[in-house]
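BUG: 3D viewer hangs when loading the predicted structure for this chain

Environment: internal workstation, default settings.
Expected: structure renders.
Actual: progress bar stalls at 90%.

Input used:
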Amino acid sequence: MTHFYSSEVQTSNRQKKKKQNISDGLAVVGLHQTKDFSYPAITFIASDMKNKIEKLKNSGLENFSEIGESNIVLTTPEQQKINLFKLGM
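Structure tokens produced before the viewer hung:
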């Protein structure tokens, strides 16, 4: 069964962020409105992202920027941004 839900979150600096999520019970896909990025981005979050990033780097990953120890932003040839973030950044 597919579930849709939306919410508005009040952040610590009093900004409101809107998000829309869809879940099939196994995965969640979310659209988030934020001022943190000036571009549309696809974001993958995992508790073991540091290990996943290391495997990608060892496989020859290119065109990325590091954001801290366990987070990177990939840029595809089409200039799409893909965030790989550790859960609980």
